Q: What sequence folds into this?
């Protein structure tokens, strides 16, 4: 694929940082020379000099420059990032599904670190860390004031070493320490099993380098168990995304050959691309990794489960299958992370991850800050969505990109739902036993309400459609 393939940024143990290199009075842009603003560059140089001469303590030159780089790029959007030597190594490890740490996907909220979700089976998951927990301290260091990058560095380390996280759990009105032993995180991004005779469940928790091979192996196993599968559920709930080529490949597994999966558009010529259900657009090593899949997979009745935590690569898959009418999309409107991040090396062991384009579904819809709207809205439980409105989405992130297809409209209904959910949390925090009962069941379990509704859809039975979920308001068209 050459330069055509991009790395789709994760909502994960990510860092917000950035990069700057200026070695002359002009920078080379793709397609021409762009003059630098000399007055502003002189101001930057003047500030650097004042800090070196006037600041109360001596400051390392390298730190000043890298902090300036970080600030420059982090001001662009939540997903552009500068990689120093260590974070560049960690980023590459993350895309392979192997790294040493505690195993959490995080974001930042009010200066604290917020848990988006613990990685299934990780030390943090086993220690009881939960979605929406806040980290206030890492060992003896207060998180307030730390960048996301620095927080990640403190949580990463060598295998078998310990780190103590101080957790603030708002729904239980308590703060407590959790000591976790770091280990190599080998995330299993694909789970699959027959959940009922004739019906299969395939769950993707991330899109990594191994995801496509694992998907093919597990789907082949399912068809060996039952060559006449009647229906399949592709579960993308809380899947934060990952690698673009993996998303294209998973889409291609279900779609006719050579149809459009996703397109991208940005300033650079290489950012204006169309990715199709073709080995040319997803095969890493020349051979087609999907060639062993049974032909029946192209026709099997399919339901795709998504929710507010489905982002980036998972939205690409859901959007492609929806636009080609290959699957029924069920659940909740997705996260809305529809931007492309391209990794550019700045040296042998440093680099920059820069947002270079937006994603569009085959029909031309922008995913950014909007997400995929399900064909059938389904609540998390039979009683409704208890806390879904509290989950952050792309449109909630500071400095997020717009969709590029019109102004955003504040969702008044969601704001009201958030207020109600917060009140519910406050009330339930007083009743610990009730709070335990309200916890959502594990994905894929017998008590998984949305999965049961997906099975009803496949069997042609009645589906309990949400009475409260509505599509987030359409963007106002710009004049």
A:
């Amino acid at each position: 694929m050459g330069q055509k393939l991009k790395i789709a940024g994760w909502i994960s143990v990510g860092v917000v940082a950035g990069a700057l290199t200026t070695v002359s009075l002009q920078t080379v842009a793709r397609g021409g020379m762009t003059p630098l603003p000399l007055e502003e560059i002189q101001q930057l140089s003047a500030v650097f000099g004042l800090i070196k001469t006037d600041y109360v303590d001596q400051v390392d030159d390298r730190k000043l420059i890298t902090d300036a780089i970080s600030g420059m790029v982090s001001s662009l959007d939540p997903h552009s990032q500068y990689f120093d030597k260590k974070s560049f190594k960690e980023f590459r490890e993350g895309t392979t599904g192997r790294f040493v740490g505690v195993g959490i996907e995080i974001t930042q909220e009010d200066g604290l670190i917020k848990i988006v979700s613990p990685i299934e089976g990780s030390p943090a998951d086993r220690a009881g860390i939960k979605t929406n927990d806040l980290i206030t301290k890492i060992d003896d260091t207060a998180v307030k004031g730390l960048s996301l990058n620095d927080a990640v560095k403190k949580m990463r380390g060598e295998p078998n070493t310990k780190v103590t996280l101080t957790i603030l759990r708002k729904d239980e009105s308590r703060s407590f320490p959790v000591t976790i032993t770091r280990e190599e995180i080998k995330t299993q991004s694909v789970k699959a099993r027959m959940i009922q005779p004739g019906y299969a469940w395939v769950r993707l928790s991330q899109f990594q380098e191994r995801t496509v091979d694992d998907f093919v192996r597990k789907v082949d196993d399912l068809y060996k168990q039952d060559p006449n599968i009647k229906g399949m559920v592709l579960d993308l709930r809380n899947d934060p995304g990952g690698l673009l080529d993996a998303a294209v490949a998973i889409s291609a597994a279900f779609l006719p050959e050579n149809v459009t999966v996703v397109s991208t558009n940005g300033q650079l010529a290489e950012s204006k691309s169309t990715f199709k259900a073709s080995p040319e657009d997803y095969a890493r090593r020349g051979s087609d990794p999907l060639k062993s899949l049974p032909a029946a997979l192209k026709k099997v009745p399919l339901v795709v489960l998504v929710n507010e935590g489905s982002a980036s690569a998972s939205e690409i898959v859901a959007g492609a299958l929806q636009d080609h009418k290959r699957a029924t999309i069920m659940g909740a409107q997705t996260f809305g992370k529809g931007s492309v991040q391209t990794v550019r090396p700045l040296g042998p062991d440093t680099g920059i991850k820069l947002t270079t384009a937006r994603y569009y579904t085959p029909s031309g819809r922008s995913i950014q800050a909007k997400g995929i709207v399900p064909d059938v809205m389904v609540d998390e439980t039979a009683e409704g969505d208890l806390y879904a409105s509290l989950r952050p989405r792309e449109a909630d992130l500071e400095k997020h990109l717009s969709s590029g297809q019109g102004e955003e409209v504040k969702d008044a209904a969601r704001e009201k739902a958030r207020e109600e959910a917060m009140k519910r949390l406050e009330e339930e925090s007083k009743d610990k036993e009730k709070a335990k009962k309200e916890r959502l069941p594990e994905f894929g379990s017998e008590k998984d309400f949305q999965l049961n509704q997906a099975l009803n859809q496949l069997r042609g039975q009645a589906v309990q459609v949400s009475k409260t979920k509505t599509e987030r308001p359409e963007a106002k068209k710009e004049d």
Remarks:
- The two ends are 39 Å apart (CA to CA).
